[in-house]
Amino acid sequence: MQLQFFVRSPTHQTLTVTLESTQTLTLRHLKSSLLPNTKSISSFYFALNGKPLSDSTILPTPEILHLSTLSLLPRISGGGGDGGATGAESRDCYLKMYAEKKPDKIDPNEKRLGKWLNCALSFEPLREPCVIDKLGNIFNKETLVEALLGKKLPKEFRHIKGLKDMINIKLSKISGKQADAADGAMFQCPITGLEFNGKYRFFALKNCGHIVSAKALKEVKSSACLVCHKEFVESDKMVINGSEEEVAILRERMEEEKAKTTMEKKKKGELMLWMGQRIVVNWKGMKNLRMERNRVMLE
Ligand SMILES: [Zn+2]
């Protein structure tokens, strides 16, 4: 009798695992065949109905019923996966904390400036690593990923469906400013030194993630990033916290990209992979997936 169950990935993809009756497997082994390196192995855990499962659990086990769904979740430091609070619980606290901090009324001018200093989701001071979405909003990556996994994203950010919709950015710190300083800009343009405080226009270069001021891009005419020299084209420039019109253009571009991806996916159809221990893996939604030495890499 085969044991078949599903694994839901952190990027909300579903993987079907089929275990032949003659096979045994630990969850640790399963995890290592799904994740790219040892570092990521320790930062994820399996959970069944919200309850963390030990990595040493041997499959088949009566605990995991035929056709049940395991979630592969990122560990949150201080809880989850080790018999402490579950990830889901700490995530809820985390987001509740942010919800309480969000003030009711904000001066529009203050709100505009606030977007440059704070995470668009939590309103907490920007803290690296930061990401932008495809509309040019800036987030603390951890906050955004947590909200995404907990399905707590407000409507305005529902276009963010996975890591593929985030662009890792590299901000340039103003030297001497300490992390989480609540007094004004923490970051600056690495070329002109203009502060990242809402008074100047800034662009993110999509391919390398560097954040530079519009002034620098205008003054130094170049088709390569001014910091890392990676080539870029006009459409790789993403305006940060742009005007309504600029955001509308970014939104249009995002929709176009999405339509294109859907077409490509249809062409490829379903993918069957055969991996160690003859686990049959059947992924749907392959955009964030690539194979490397018989391992499935989540991106
Ligand atoms: Zn660069």
From TrEMBL:
UniProt-listed PROSITE patterns: UBIQUITIN_2
Q: Name one GO biological process term.
A: DNA replication termination
Among InterPro entries, the record links this protein to: Rtf2, Rtf2_RING-finger, Ubiquitin-like_dom
Q: Which Pfam families match?
A: Rtf2
Residue ranges of domain Ubiquitin-like in the record: 3-79
One cellular component term (GO) for this entry is: nucleus
Q: Which domain of life is it from?
A: Eukaryota
Designated name of the protein:
NADP-dependent glyceraldehyde-3-phosphate dehydrogenase-like
